[in-house]
Amino acid sequence: MKKVLSTLMTAFFAVFTVMMVSCNDDDKPNNGNGNGNGNGNNDGTVVFDIGEAYWQSADEVHYNWTVSITDSKFKLSSFFDNDEERYYSFGIGYFPVGAENNKPQYFNGSNDQSKVHHEMLSANADSTEFLFHSTMKIDNRKEARAYVYLSDGKFHYSDVFYIEPQGGDPDTLGNFGVAMPTFVSSTSKSITVKSHFTGNITSPEPFKNATCGFIWCAENEGGPTIDGGKIIDCTQSAWQNNGQYFEGTIEGLEDGYKYNIAAWLRMTPESDYIIGDWRTMKAQDGGNPEQGDTDWVNLGLIVPMSSTSISVTMTGYFDNNPIGLGVVYNTTGNPTTSDSVYNAFDHINMQTGEYDATVLSISENKDGSRTATVLLSGLKPGTTYYFRSYMQFSAGTLPTIYSEQKSESTPSN
User: Fold this and answer.
1) Who contacts 206 (Cβ-Cβ below 8 Å, separation ≥6)?
2) For site-directed labelling of 140, which of 28, 219, 258, 403 has its Cα 20 to 30 A away?
């Protein structure tokens, strides 16, 4: 893997690039209540759990962190900064050490065009428990706070914690791993997936004898293990893709069955296997795709953003090649694709993850589904709208799927 890993750092950091935006004035988002507690209770409304950074490099840090909203009358909302022209719902703000008497001065807006920033990975059904992912590009130690903006019109902050780039001898840095697999394609007998390396990667040297690949098992068997014997080696794929990612095809599967799939990494032939988190994926129903648990859509949080715009969160899973996936809406109820339509495929490149400014956030879930929060504009003030998420297929193939209906009103001018 020497050729691959000599370019690993360049390729890896090209995937994870992030810009932080400054909010210095008193009416900017950094002026919330400022009474947060890092791993405890804010003011009886919000509980943050930040924990340790799960990935650090010489100039980048990644966190997974959670928020619990203990009062059901408050919901995650969105703040629009007219000067910065960005939306703020959640994230991590930081400032250089030595400015401890100030609130965090830098935020990464949730529609930042750098694409990798602060993302919602999951939320429970009543939108009170959230898992977030934050990526920060840094060059020195900084003091930070996590934040959420709620429907009480305030920013709620965690306690102060420190983020810093990883130093030290590259040969002794550890915490290497592999990312949860992402779905590429499937047939009735196979599933193709890809993954990438994670960890404190500051040099290709520790990877000179590394191998990588995927393991899998049936959905009802829990997490896949090396001892299960279902394993493929994809080291050659890592070479061919210059260390940026590796891809493999799992074959010999059963029509329509679900499988739990994980990536693995082995630093040397003598070392233990490092197993990443697994994801559930499904082989196609051979030649006769049927709807059911194969393709589905759900409608999540709906938040008024202004008198003429509303943000809508939707989640969908598919393996039958839909031509439309998104939100339909009207003012009369039971909207269909004959009404106003937001088709996510017109705004999101599902292969590269790139998207336009109408997409506030996008994430992949453990079961292979994808969640996106999108901005619907051009609405009428003081009007009640009805929403459903939908999934549409080519004419004559499968019927259009709709989620349950929800309604929300735009504020009056």
Assistant:
1) 170, 171, 173, 176, 267
2) 28
